[in-house]
């Protein structure tokens, strides 16, 4: 069987020439027997923006083939599991409260928001909510939408007189549909995509077009309106060959029961195609085949795997080509002819063509270059789904929320679909809206969009897994424990999620100041001398006190934002400092203080593998406000310190700090981004202080300010980070 995809593309163009209403290419029943995947790709390339199928399995097959355009399944079986469809972003039909409740329950369990189309019965009486049930359905749908469990993308119905779009019953159905839209709007469901028109009405009844036209049989070349031609081009051609011949005398019978008797002596040819391949046996007494430039009758009954042609006196040769049906431009039988001979319609002929007949496709020339930006965004390539994690069970929860808000507000919506996911201080994952709108985002609004899971059922560990499974890229804007210590990275690695930033090993090293010092000092970088104390009882020995001297800093080994850090200028203050640090971590560092300037360097990795360091920034404490750069000085007291951008350093020292920052990044195995902090001993000798593998992105954070001073905007940073993560996933790096 041959499928001319050029015909598919031309038929889409014919509709686009008749109307500027967006088109849904209906590819149910394996694209009416033509091959759903190939037809879908061709139709989308020619200008369709949606795909329609009958069942979820058909939609899933399209997704498995890599097709990312919006897909609506028209039917949903009672009790059917929709989890996979939700994860694949397949739009679901809702015809009853039971459908709606089951979809909302599954969405809640998975932590997703279901895209649904509400179906109303306007007179077809085959599917859809009855008018008496419609108000309750739209009210409940609106409530679930406010809960973030569903989004009502569309409202639809189907017409009864599909081949007679001007029938009076059609106008009555459209009146009912308008009333259904009005009732939905009263419930708060305004501005939804309305669609009623199918193949015929889309051409002949402008009132029925609304926001989308569902094109079925016409896509494959079946004229949509009886008695009128729009120049649609049939796409399917069925060929076979003669596999045996024989001369039979006049009056002799053929096949079982000799139902066919030859009118005169002539040749019969056995053709290798039968009713198992889609030829309707009911057409046996009337069907014709195209052989040697003319139509010849089918002799007798069409069998399972073969049929017989009466060639008369013209003669036949084994191997001769037979045209069963085609476009008809040579005079050969058409699908419409076979439908008439069998007493059925063209759709049945096309969809009955069996799978044992191999398909050969003639490619179409799609016109992707002619797509508008809106069309490209709507149907492909699909924007990567970016999930931004923020919050988390650490002392840096508020800082993380601020970082998340900044990132979400600056991600380019033309490039990414963005979903915020808050992790509560108790560790609960709370998904926000599926496609957060573009524009500024503030921490308070972000938190309000992700209400506490104590008020919602089903937000357990399944939600975390579903969130990660539904993301193309995860941005873990989490600071401190769980966010930067390798815990969430391990979870993401376990489920195969693609994410921004360092992996487990580098996150563990970066978070643990003791381990980072050991690795970097072994590699030749200068670090301040230190002693590690484990457990609640270990103390600093006299020899260690003598070696370190005063002053010292006492630090939790695995904490960020200077939480739990204390300066000790007299040994009598050591017990209190140890208690403060141990409240954050059982591993504690007592570190020799370095007298000098404090300098930070931002590091960014690009998708092509380049690792670039910014010019250093210097943090200068305001005299008399804070003893050192603690949490308050960083986030709460904007007068505690000032930042010099760039730091006033000579070119050689600037280059050395940038080189050391990249070296530390590479040695520790970091990815994506980091901020590397140094102390400049006596103003000349760089000493590694610590590394932050996911620095803050709040408006006051140094990381983004350093890059902004270098002329690198935040949106460019985010593009680089996401591109680097995707490059690692695809093996391009």
Q: Tell me the structural class.
A: alpha/beta
Distance between the termini: 43 Å
Number of helices: 24
Shape: elongated
Can you identify the CATH superfamily of the largest domain?
Answer: Alanine racemase
Estimate what percentage of residues fall within beta strands. Answer: 15-25%
- Quaternary structure state of the chains depicted: single chain
Sheet of most strands: 8 strands, mixed
* Helix-residue proportion: 25-40%
Comma- or semicolon-separated keywords:
733 residues; alpha/beta; TIM Barrel; Lyase, Ornithine Decarboxylase, Chain A, domain 1; Rossmann fold; eight-stranded mixed beta sheet; six-stranded antiparallel beta sheet; elongated
Structural notes for this entry:
- By secondary structure, the protein is α/β, with parallel strands linked by helices.
- It has four domains: about 1-220, TIM Barrel (Alpha-Beta Barrel); about 235-350, Lyase, Ornithine Decarboxylase, Chain A, domain 1, CATH 2.40.37.10; about 385-500, Rossmann fold; about 595-733, ATP-grasp fold, B domain (D-amino Acid Aminotransferase, Chain A, domain 1), CATH 3.30.470.
- The protein is about 30% helix and about 20% strand.
- The protein has 24 helices and 32 strands.
- The strands form seven sheets. Strands 1, 10, 13, 14, 15, 16, 17 and 18 form an eight-stranded mixed sheet that branches.
- It is elongated and about 120 Å long.
- Mean pLDDT is about 90; it is low at about 365-380 and about 455-460.
